[in-house]
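Hi everyone, sorry if this is the wrong subforum. Our group has a chain we'd like a structural model of before ordering constructs, and none of us has done structure prediction before. Sequence below.
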Amino acid sequence: MCGRFTLRHPKRVRLWAPTVDLFETTPRFNIAPSQKVLAVTETEAGRELTTLDWGLIPSWSKEPAGIINARAETLEDRHSFAESFLRRRCLIPADGFYEWKKRGKERLPYYFQLKDEEVFAFAGIWDTWRGSGVKVTSCAIVTTTPNELLSSIHDRMPVMLQPESHDAWLDSRTPVEELKRMLNPYPAEEMKSCPVSPDVNQPANDDEHLVEPVEEPPELQPSLF
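Answer:
Right subforum, don't worry. Here is the predicted structure as tokens:
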């Protein structure tokens, strides 16, 4: 899954939508579900840079309960995702994400990023929900099986689109089979990871110390007494 991510260099997103003014943004080190996320969509008027609530609420839902991740394997089949996958796709900019390694009762956070630490795009889907006089436009991040770097930490990873796939992912005319081919694990040899502070567990913590490497705590030896 993908439950937290970073966008430390939001101004680099300008490269994806050069004709759009990048509104005021600040570096973020601990983006969490239900928060606003930056997203790039394609409309009839052209490419648009916007913010979406992280947690997809399908338009037909009776309750505004969001889903943060959508499994690549069930995008076509699951009612919550199918229409958005076919008609409403987006790029969600990030430059890193966190996953947690289970070790006994502990959950140790790790930070994953590209080796060059550049901004990349998660594959996203979005929808608009209306109810009780409220309008919510929200999104989910598509996940897939892990690559070799992540497999020892978690059994899922977010879909990180290759730059040459950005236009096709946003284009409503792209055939479904071509879209599916984009939903593979990102090459492990182009990524790096490190253990980081458990301070990331608290969404209120949001500063650069969260992405700094730390020593992984040693495993406790079982007591003989």
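For your construct planning: The first helix runs from residue 79 to 87. The radius of gyration is 18 Å.
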